Amino acid sequence: MKISLQWLQEFVDFNIIEKEFFKDLIVGEIKEINKHPEADSLKILKLDIGKNEYQQVVCAGTNVQVGVKTPVILPGMTLPNGFTVKTVKMRGIESNGMCCGPDELRIPTENHAKEIMILNTQAKPGTLLLEVLEKGYSSQELKNLLTIHTAEIEGIEYQGKYLDYVVSGKCLEAKKIEGTDKLHVGIFDIGWKKIQIVYGSVYSIKVGDIVPVALNGAHLPKGEIKATEFLGVKSEGMLCGDDELGIEKNTWEGITRLPADTKLGKPLVELLGLMQSVIEVDNKSLTHRPDLWCHYGFARELSAILNKKLKPFKTKVEFPKTGEMVEFDIQAREVVRGSSFCIIDSVKIEESPQWIKSRLMATGIRPINNVVDITNYVMIEIGQPMHAYDCDLTGNKLVIRNAKAGEVLETIDHKKRILTQEDIIMANDQGPLLVIGVMGGANSEICNETTKVIFEAGCWDPTIVRKASQRIGLRTESSQRFEKSLHPKMCEIAIKRACEILLQICKSAKLVGPMTSQILWDPGEINLEVDPVKICSKIGVEISEDKMAEILKFLEFECQKTHGQLKIKVPFFRATKDISIEDDIVEEIARIYGYENIKPSLPQFPIKTPNDNYERIRTHQARRILSLGLGFNEAMNYSFYSQADFQNSLLAEKDHLKVENYLSLDQTHLRVSLIPNLLKSVFQNQKYQEEFKIFEIGRTYIETGEFMPKEEKNIGAIIANQSKNYKKEIFYEAKGAVEIFLRIFAVKGARIVSAKNPPTYAHPKKCAEIMIGKDNFGYVYCLNPVVKKNHELEGEVAAFELNLSKLAQLGESLAKYKPLPKYPGINIDVSVVIHKAKTIAEITEVIRKADKVLIKDIKLFDVYEDKNLGDDKKALAFSILLQAEDRTLTDEEMVRVQSQVFKDLENIGGVIRGK
Question: CB under 8 Å to 33, separation ≥6 — which residues?
């Protein structure tokens, strides 16, 4: 949102001095004046610039006098418009600097453009100009103050900064240049002299027209203007179209024609009100402050910050007690909080005055016509959106109702909107006229033929407006304000202000009847009683009761001191969703008092180290193991997916929570597994990579019938390979990754066994579950062929899932490093033929039990199946590492362990080969 600082000056008395523009300027005193030998309009000045230094400056100022002090800029320094002053010769006489007039300093004045600025000061020559200018605030200072005390200001835009040497000029003569059809030459009066300008036929300039003229030396957005010749005809400047000036087009002709009574030679920035500093406010800082979506709201804040009086917002308009009025029926009473209407007749539709257009343009709103501009102006000024109807098109009988399903309204942006029964509309007996809180219809908009206008200001339920805006796909300046919960009292204030402006700028307009209003919702008065001692305790600094009361009164709170307490009445514009409890008052006092005035201090209570968030620590550890240790790439998906997504993974809807106000159709349900979104990532990545490994760590949400879903943090990982040269069994690659992860993650007692109830998206025959004790901690599996087909995946795909929340609760930490063994180990190989039903995990556990101290590692290095072994048999070969930490093992110890291994394997039905 854009706020004009100059507009705020209408409500608060403060000066804006762009100090950074004047850093190179000093005070100079004129000691001598001599005529220029070659030009009567020029004078040669001897300037005292302090420290017994003098400079010679050639000047065209008409008001120079000996003894006068004036702003001076020396060679090498820069003017506010960005022009760097150089030592030059003017008609053969050297000039070492420049005496500045108000135009060069961008200071509004009634003086002619060729007058220097005379300083009424006792300051010595050489003093910095900043030290003698009237005290004020720069835009940067105001930006910083508002950011600290009110809301974040993202930036400042200095409008009109290229227009310092563009003035009003009146055409005295105009004719074509012989030998060309496109070029014309004209004589233009610019107040203090007449100049000749060559211009193109694109502008049909007539004698008497007053238009923008760029003088020699002007720096426009597209370059510098210099005196030149066209076909031998001298041109001392340029006529400027709106696009060349970098301003909003004011007419279809592309050049602004100024009123006939415009003072000649007046800078354009003053005539058009373009010399404005506009701040860009971060909208998300204002979501809880409906009162700040306007200039008057920011003026109120600035008055409190600067300790300046805020001018009351009053209107001077009286409505007739009888006459024609709007009759309106409110059927959708649950939506309407308040609404006001009035009728104005004999209106002439025309361009708005420049002061309205310039303020609208400064805040990013395109001027349209006087009536529409007034509704936008009031919205930007006091924050209450309005709408204007052509009364001859709508009639004076209106109804606020729910739209009928399928009703169509062409909005003023000329797009047809298909409405639903959830949409609330303003309508007449012919059909919809406006979508409440969003945008008006083209069938009732103000046009050049309009003479009778209905002004409407409404206050609507913010939730309904937000939903309608989302459903239609249209977010406007109005809807943004309605979403913040406005007070219905603003409706009548807005109507009165709009009528006041229209009657001021359109003399033929007249009110033909009373204003009609209804208020259906009143949040009521909010009265709070707060303890100043508690406030000081919470803020952390002593603030007097008088100071607290002063701050609150600047913000228009009513405040009384009684028996050591502050009794506070919250203003109506802060009572809808903002101020409601004592802590809100604490915040108001603290921010205006200034957080920078609160000295930091250590907490006055014992400090102890906070408990570690063990789940977060283990999450970081898991991420490092998967990415750095196992070579997986991390994916980050939303916590939502669509119904089609979970159906493609064969998941049931009953376990899901559906989002009520989902942002899009692909984010309608909270996820119960990480795998569906990861499979979508696989589909996208397999277009570019033959093989890759991805993982995600995130929370899942399972419907349990309770108030809150079951929420756990999980790890999901997928290995995908569509290479024709891939020879591995992808299930074992995924299983190996799980085993390595669990080992580094220091999970003890984990077993990988055949899954009894595999997930729906897992292969029913190629799925194992990860068990610790009797609890399931995850799965490793190949992808279900149906799911693979649903996601259009190629090649081999395997995945694993781990419940990180449960793993973190085990209380383990990462494996600690041990010193390298000092004594050598012994490897023994064991080959056993055993029934296929026996799992590798079971056999490994049997081997380890033979000697849990000496057996350090067991590796399966061969699996063999053959008809000669039997259809239900398999041959497995293991390498077993035996090692002691304090000695070298003897042959007897090796034989003892080996014999025990053989015996234990035979006890479970194994036959030792080569025994």
Answer: 43, 44, 45, 46, 64, 65, 66
